[in-house]
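ok new one. same drill as before - structure tokens go in, u give me an amino acid for every spot. 311 of them this time. try not to just spam alanines like last time pls lmao
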């Protein structure tokens, strides 16, 4: 037993040793963490508890999937990026999905209308972005039948859009707590942990209320530049390609920010690298209005047009 622990910690440890189920062990370790010493000498103890807790939660998640049959449902990532849309019931997720995409979800004033993930596609300047509306978050979401499945979809997303209504800061913090139970976070602590998933978040307020969390990008549902702001949060750029003597191809290609000509060539076809001679670039990254001849290491900017010349 660690030294300098409280009687509450000792009781929680006894509860853990006597636990008969994974859920009981999880609750006991949570109590141990809450009562464990917080001084520097107890860092290893707390790290060990967190590691054990994470493994138990993962095991419980797998068992719930198998028990509920939730593993039979999956959402395949499509397009340049996948966005998971989350929020409490009646937060406006379905309205947002309908507004932004070609999807036709059921919209109702009644709570918990969405029972399974709803999928739509945003068309941003020809770039396809997949949006997945997750059924409403609620207390102890991770311990519900399909909670682990839906959290798995959130975990694989490139961006999480959080819809908030009349009490945005309170709702936001409650949602963070629910995701935290599944080791999903939106900011990295000083000490990283392999058990944790770190995602980018964008907050949308579906009311006239104000959101005061300065560390998170946010917008109102009626913002005219909403799609543009979401695109920026994805950290992607779009680049046009063309064949010599012809107009630029459509649609453009989506790349990660700070990608170079080699990244674009690899994205188009592996043979482009083998046969590459040079590329000509027009746009923000070009030094000349009439285009610039560049090599594979040239960094591309959004809206550039790239013409490949091959051997």
């Amino acid at each position: 037993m660690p030294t300098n622990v409280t009687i509450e910690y000792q009781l929680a440890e006894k509860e853990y040793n006597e636990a008969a189920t994974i859920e009981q062990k999880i609750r006991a370790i949570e109590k141990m963490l809450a009562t464990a010493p917080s001084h520097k000498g107890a860092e290893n103890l707390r790290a060990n508890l967190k590691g054990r807790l994470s493994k138990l939660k993962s095991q419980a998640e797998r068992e719930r999937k198998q028990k509920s049959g939730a593993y039979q449902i999956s959402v395949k990532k499509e397009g340049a990026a996948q966005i998971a849309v989350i929020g409490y019931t009646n937060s406006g997720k379905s309205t947002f999905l309908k507004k932004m995409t070609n999807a036709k979800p059921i919209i109702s004033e009644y709570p918990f209308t969405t029972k399974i993930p709803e999928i739509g596609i945003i068309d941003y300047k020809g770039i396809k972005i997949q949006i997945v509306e997750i059924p409403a978050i609620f207390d102890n979401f991770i311990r519900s039948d399909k909670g682990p499945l839906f959290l798995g979809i959130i975990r694989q997303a490139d961006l999480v859009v959080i819809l908030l209504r009349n009490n945005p800061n309170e709702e936001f913090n409650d949602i963070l707590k629910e995701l935290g139970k599944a080791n999903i976070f939106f900011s990295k602590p000083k000490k990283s942990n392999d058990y944790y998933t770190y995602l980018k978040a964008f907050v949308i307020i579906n009311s006239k209320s104000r959101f005061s969390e300065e560390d998170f990008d946010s917008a109102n549902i009626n913002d005219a530049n909403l799609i543009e702001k979401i695109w920026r949060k994805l950290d992607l750029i779009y680049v046009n390609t063309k064949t010599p003597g012809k107009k630029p191809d459509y649609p453009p290609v989506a790349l990660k920010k700070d990608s170079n000509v080699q990244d674009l060539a690899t994205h188009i076809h592996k043979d482009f690298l083998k046969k590459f001679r040079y590329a000509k670039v027009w746009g923000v990254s070009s030094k000349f209005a009439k285009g610039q001849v560049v090599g594979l290491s040239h960094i591309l900017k959004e809206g550039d047009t790239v013409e490949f010349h091959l051997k």
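The radius of gyration is 24 Å. and btw The chain has a mean pLDDT of 87.
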